[in-house]
Amino acid sequence: MSAARVLGDWGTSRLRLYRVSGGAVTGRLDGPGIGSVGGDAEAVLTERLEQWLREGPLESVTLCGMAGARGALVEAGYAPCPAGPAEWLQSRSCLAVAGVPVAVLPGLSCRSGSDVPDVMRGEETQIFGTLSQHPELARGEHVFALPGTHCKWARVKDGVVRGFATWPTGELFALLSEQSTLTGPDTPGSGTFDKGFERGLDRVHEPVLGALFEARAARMLDGKSRDWARGLLSGLLIGAELASLAAQDREVVLIGDASLAALYERALSRSGRTVRRVDGERAVIAGLRLAHDAAPQAKDIA
Question: How many angstroms from the chain centroid is the CA of residue 192?
C-alpha cells in the first residue's frame, strides 16, 4: 500500500487535517485550535495521526497556520515581504510526530511605510494556493481580502505578496457583541441581523466609535433586537475596513468561509467594487499541496 500524505491547517480556533492519496482527499479529521490546546499540541496531533496510521502508512505531514507560533507545535519563523512562493518556502520547521515527518510552514511579515510591524500565519498559504489555482491572478496587481478573526488585506503583484495590513475585526466583533453592554440581553425586539448590518453600512462615513453606541440606544428607545444590534456592529466594523481601500482598488479577491465572505461581498458591492470569491478550504489545500510538492526533502526528515 502506498503511503498517504497529510495536509493540515491548524489555526487559533480549529484544526483541519486532510489525508491525500493518489492526488485526492480521502479523509478528514478535525480538532481543537492552538488557542485551546497550548503546550499539548503534539499530543493532539499524535492522537489524530494514529487514527490514520491504524489504516495504513503516512508519508509526511505539512502544516500551516498557528502550529508554527511560539509555544505551539514548533516555532516557524516569518518570511519577510516582498515574498513569492520560493521566498516563503525557503524556511520551515521540521520534527517527527508519531514517527511521521512533519513540516510546519512559516508565515509572512511586513512593515508599513511608518515602520509598523505586521504578521500573518495561514493566510499566506491560501494566497499562494489561490495563485496556483488561478494563474491569471499571478499576473498584474491585485488586492486580496481574507476575512476572519484578524482580517488580512494583501497586495499581490505578479505573484509576489508586496505587503499587507491586519484588521482585528472578527476579534473586536466578538468582544463588543458578547462581552460589552452594547448588544444587551437576548430579549424580544424587532429587526434582523441583515437589517442591522445594512444600518451599519449606512453609517460608515461617520466616526465609528460614536456610531457603535447606536446598538445600545436603539435597543433602549426603538425596541430593536439583539440580532439587529449585532448586525449593526458587524456593518460598522467591516465598513471601517473598506474605508481604507484606495479609490483605484475596484476589484477584490475574497478568500474565506462562505458566510463571512458573503458579508464582505455585500459591503464591497455597496461601495461599487467587484468581488472574485475563492473558497477558503480549497485555497488552503492547494497552498499546502504546493508547499509539499516544492520541498520533497521534507519527506526524509526523521
Answer: 27
Question: Which amino acid is present at 253?
Answer: V
Could you tell me the CA-to-CA distances from 265 to 86, 192, 242, 258, 270 in Å, in that order?
31, 19, 11, 10, 9
**Is 125 within 8 Å of 287 (Cβ atoms)?**
yes
Stretch (H or E) spanning 284: helix 280-294
**How far is C-alpha 91 from the geometric centre of its chain's CA atoms?**
21
- Cα maximum dimension of the chain: 68
**CA angle, 214 then 173 then 106, to 5°:** 155
Q: Grid cell 461601495 — which residue?
A: 271
Q: Could you tell me the three cell numbers for 48?
A: 489524530
CA dist 97 and 162 (Å) reads 34
Distance between CA atoms of residues 90 and 222, nearest Å:
57
- Quote the distance between the C-alpha of residue 119 and its chain's center: 12
> How far does CA 180 lie from the centroid of its chain?
25
Query: Each residue of 251-288: pLDDT tens digit?
Result: 999 999 999 999 999 999 999 999 999 999 999 999 99
Unique residue bearing C-alpha cell 488561478: 134
Q: How far is CA 166 from the centre of its chain?
A: 11
- Residues 144-172 have pLDDT tens digits of 999 999 999 999 999 999 999 999 999 99
User: Can you read off the three cell numbers belonging to residue 14?
Assistant: 480549529
Residue 245: partners with Cβ closer than 8 Å, 6 or more residues away? 143, 153, 252, 271, 273
Place of cell 497552498: 287
Report pTM: 0.93
